[in-house]
Task: inverse folding
């Protein structure tokens, strides 16, 4: 009888251990310098950033001075009014990234995507046409459903944090990294990440969370700010780990994700350290400091953003990264009239008038009236045409860019045609 009881207890323990192991294996993990996929095999991230979707950037609209989401929204509001601008963003968010885009990326050979987002999508602050703290979840839920269907993994990236973590247009802030000086903003950052983690804690299509994009620009005193970076990461990580033990945490270095000096030994068992590189030599020497860090602490590293260069440079740097077993997400997936991305949006007629207005200095209301275009019907038509042009089926494929990343445009076309054929025959 006693032996049966012991056997029963051992059996229950083994089943519990097996169940826990199976649950753990649903998610990405780390082992030494490797990121491991849910199947336990080493996984090198290869993909792109969905830039300009949830965080619009001026240069991808062909604007120069109007370069942040806030300034773009202001420019559109001046042109067509706040209500029409809200409507513009609603259609924009629907058209810019769709299930078709995710299917296209999967067919191209992409295994993962990085998704930049603005914290305002999870607050009552007015952003991209809504004042809805659930708006971000609505958008991400749709995206994750598409990605789950295609088995395309996702990394969530807080590109714009409360108060601003960078101090430049990319954080949609006020030109200074106020996040590091504001207790309220730090608490809000941690609480938003905790809400996101609580919602997606059991979702294995998510690789992990990139906590802060490109903190502390080079314009600011590194001695004042850099020592504050890792403590803030620890605070955010603690908030996430209260609700989510499953997902990886990605930590970007200071000074545009380029400086790992502020980091000490890893404080969590599932950390990946991320760097960004633009306009450097595409050689091993450029990434060696990060490789040295990886070797020192036996942790994975990853290149979260790079690109915006010639196809030859892209091919060379991708090769350099992969030779060092470093994953990558090149920037960006889609933009207007530019071949340094997967697909490019065709510029509508009259769109140059919108660019001209955006770039015209306006210091007072008299300037606003003077700069206002005469043919507003044409302006509205150009914006409507842009919203149509940003749909994948209206975009141009950048064959050379895909080939530079090791993907095949021909393969994309064949898979898409085959999938459409199967769909139509049902």
Result:
């Amino acid at each position: 009888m006693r032996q049966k009881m012991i056997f029963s207890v051992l059996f229950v323990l083994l089943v519990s251990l097996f169940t826990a192991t199976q649950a753990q294996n649903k998610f990405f993990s780390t082992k030494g310098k490797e990121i491991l996929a849910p199947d336990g095999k080493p996984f090198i991230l290869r993909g792109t950033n969905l830039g300009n979707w949830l965080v619009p950037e001026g240069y991808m609209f062909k604007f120069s001075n109007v370069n942040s989401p806030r300034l773009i929204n202001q420019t559109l509001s001046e042109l067509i009014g706040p209500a029409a601008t809200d409507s513009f963003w609603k259609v924009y968010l629907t058209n810019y990234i769709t299930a078709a885009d995710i299917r296209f990326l999967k067919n191209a050979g992409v295994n993962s995507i990085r998704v930049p987002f603005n914290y305002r999508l999870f607050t009552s602050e007015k952003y991209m046409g809504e004042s809805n703290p659930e708006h971000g979840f609505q958008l991400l839920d749709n995206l994750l459903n598409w990605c789950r269907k295609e088995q395309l993994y996702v990394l969530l990236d807080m590109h714009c944090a409360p108060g601003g973590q960078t101090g430049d247009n990319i954080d949609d802030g006020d030109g200074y990294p106020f996040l590091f000086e504001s207790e309220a903003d730090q608490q809000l950052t941690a609480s938003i990440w905790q809400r996101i983690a609580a919602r997606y804690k059991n979702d294995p299509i998510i690789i992990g969370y990139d906590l802060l994009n490109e903190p502390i620009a080079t314009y600011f005193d590194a001695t004042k700010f850099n020592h504050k970076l890792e403590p803030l990461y620890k605070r955010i990580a603690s908030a996430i780990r209260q609700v989510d033990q499953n997902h990886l945490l990605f930590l970007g270095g200071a000074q545009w994700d380029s400086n790992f000096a502020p980091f000490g030994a890893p404080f969590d068992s599932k950390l990946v350290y991320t760097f960004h590189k633009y306009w450097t030599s595409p050689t091993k020497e450029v990434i060696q400091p990060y490789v040295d860090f990886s070797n020192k602490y036996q942790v994975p590293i990853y290149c979260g953003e790079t690109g915006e260069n010639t196809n030859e440079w892209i091919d060379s740097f991708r090769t350099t990264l992969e030779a060092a077993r470093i994953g990558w997400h090149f920037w960006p997936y889609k933009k207007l009239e530019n071949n340094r991305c997967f697909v490019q949006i065709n510029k509508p007629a009259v769109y140059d008038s919108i660019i001209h207005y955006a770039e015209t200095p306006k210091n007072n209301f008299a300037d606003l009236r003077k700069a206002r275009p005469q043919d507003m019907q044409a302006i509205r038509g150009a914006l409507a045409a842009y919203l149509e042009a940003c749909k994948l089926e209206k975009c141009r494929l950048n064959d050379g860019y895909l080939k530079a990343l090791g993907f095949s445009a021909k393969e994309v076309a064949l898979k898409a045609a085959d999938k459409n054929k199967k769909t139509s025959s049902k």
User: Anything to note?
Assistant: The radius of gyration is 23 Å.
